[in-house]
Design brief:
By secondary structure, this protein is mainly α. Helices cover about 80% and strands about 0% of the residues. It is built from 8 helices and no strands.
């Protein structure tokens, strides 16, 4: 399961960078599926993944002998936070509503988790917390880069070869209730899709 996490995370980052540089059909759909899959992995299987328990040993009682109740609850909470970070990073990257707000809340929760992990690492010097901290920092730094980029910057990078669309979309972002601006942005977008 750990290899699956690494593969999914690497594919997501590569696909995000690739789709910023080259517009390809279905890249957004594939990126969405990968993020949902990784988010689901964290949400549903974090207690196994973060505690290094194999899926086939999930229902064996002795698999949890080295895991305390608090650590089990902590890994479940950490998994929920990681899932939120991944999903809201997707929202921000795709310029979907509430992407920035959701990403700021989930990154705030991630900072709380990192603080707890640092405290536990300082107290116990346990390898588990060191490995968890690495994972949290990689995901946190990647999501923070997206958090620092504005929607306009992402738009300018992704559609740098289409200045008319960028202009129309920025005007619509400034006045989202204006149907004429929305129609103009949609027309410019359709021109891109037809190429």
């Amino acid at each position: 399961m750990k290899q699956l996490e690494v593969v999914l995370g690497s594919l997501i980052i590569l696909l995000m960078v690739f789709s910023l540089l080259v517009l390809k059909p279905y890249a957004s759909a594939i990126l969405t599926l990968l993020c949902l899959f990784l988010g689901g992995l964290y949400f549903y299987f974090s207690f196994l993944l973060l505690n290094n328990i194999r899926l086939r040993h999930a229902f064996k009682k002795n698999s949890y002998d080295h895991v305390s109740l608090w650590r089990l609850l902590g890994t479940i909470f950490t998994g929920v936070v990681l899932a939120l970070v991944v999903i809201y990073a997707l929202f921000k990257f795709q310029s979907w509503p509430y992407g920035q707000d959701g990403l700021s809340i989930s990154l705030g929760l991630l900072i709380l988790v990192i603080a707890i992990v640092l405290l536990k690492l300082y107290q116990t010097k346990n390898v588990f917390y060191r490995n968890l901290l690495k994972r949290l920092l990689i995901i946190g730094c990647s999501a923070s880069i997206l958090f620092l980029l504005s929607y306009e910057q992402i738009l300018e990078i992704r559609y740098r070869d289409y200045p008319d669309y960028i202009k129309a979309e920025k005007e619509f972002m400034a006045d989202p209730t204006n149907t004429i601006l929305e129609q103009r942005a949609n027309e410019e977008r359709m021109k891109i899709d037809l190429k």
